[in-house]
Design goal:
Elements lengths: L10 H9 L3 E6 L13 H19 L4 E3 L22 H17 L4 E6 L5 H11 L6 E6 L5 H7 L11 H10 L13 E2 L29 E2 L5 H20 L1 H4 L5
Parallel strand pairs: 1-2, 1-3, 3-4
Antiparallel strand pairs: 5-6
Helix pairs in contact: 2-7, 3-4, 6-7
Length: 258
């Protein structure tokens, strides 16, 4: 199969893909602390992995898809107390996403899917995607990758209903794709935070901004001690399949009748 990664193609090849009507995925995530046991790459690494796998599945089904390099920094102010975190203010984050969206359209593409991999980006992206919809000739859509497969994740995980932070889910997925970036000797410390009653990204009816230090002394929400590579592979497969379904659905790209 020809690579689905935008960065591995030449400009003429990308112009040809645009002319064929290819879809473009923009993974958007974060660079931030993930407890004592995980590297700070977690969000952009996993989001990029789901984007690549989902693009390959969709392309195999006849919907050509290309994946841009991940936007590796997002809105992560709530993680700053732990160090190791790079965060963008909203205006900068918005400018980056809209600038990329405009460039995608200028390259001839008409469909852009923004795939989010960080809970702190959810509210901002809902606003930014509304603005991206005003770019002439560009149809934009988006989702947070683990919310696409929330019911599947619930069936895989033992201690939580979905992705939290540096938790059973994220640690499992990192064990599947980047086992060298999991510090197994620190797993005994990798738990904490509020009870995992809902998945990350689910809105709370009462909005109260709290930094992570108020919620967890370890930097973890959930329990990474339950993690395994097998669970991680199942989670990645479920999220990738759900992304493929969204990319290939006509409803994603068809304007609704008034």
């Amino acid at each position: 199969m020809t690579s689905v990664l935008w960065a591995e193609h030449s400009a003429p090849e990308l112009r040809e893909a645009a002319a064929r009507g290819a879809i473009v995925i923009l993974p958007v995530a974060a660079l931030e602390q993930h407890g004592p046991h995980l590297s700070t790459m977690v969000d952009f690494r996993l989001c990029g992995e789901v984007a690549k796998r989902g693009a390959e599945l969709a392309t195999a089904r006849g919907s050509e898809v290309l994946v841009l390099p991940p936007v590796w920094s997002g809105m992560s102010d709530h993680h700053l107390p732990f160090g190791g975190t790079v965060s963008l203010p909203f205006d900068a984050f918005r400018a980056v996403i809209l600038g990329i969206a405009g460039s995608v359209r200028a390259s001839g593409f008409a469909r852009l899917f923004v795939l989010n991999g960080h809970g702190g980006n959810v509210a901002a992206l809902s606003v930014i995607l509304q603005e991206a919809a005003t770019i002439e000739g560009l149809r934009s859509a988006g989702a947070t990758y683990w919310l696409l497969a929330e019911s599947e994740a619930r069936a895989i995980l033992e201690d939580q209903p979905g992705v939290r932070h540096a938790c059973e889910a994220e640690t499992s997925m990192m064990l599947a794709v980047e086992p060298g970036q999991v510090r197994r000797e620190r797993l005994a410390e990798a738990f904490g935070g509020a009870p995992a009653t809902v998945s990350a990204g689910t809105p709370d009816p009462v909005i109260v901004w709290r930094d992570f230090a108020e919620r967890s002394t370890s930097g973890v929400i959930g329990d990474a001690r339950r993690a395994s590579a097998g669970k991680g592979e199942r989670l990645l497969a479920a999220c990738s399949a759900a992304l493929c379904a969204a990319l290939c659905s006509p409803a994603t790209w068809t304007k609704q009748a008034p």
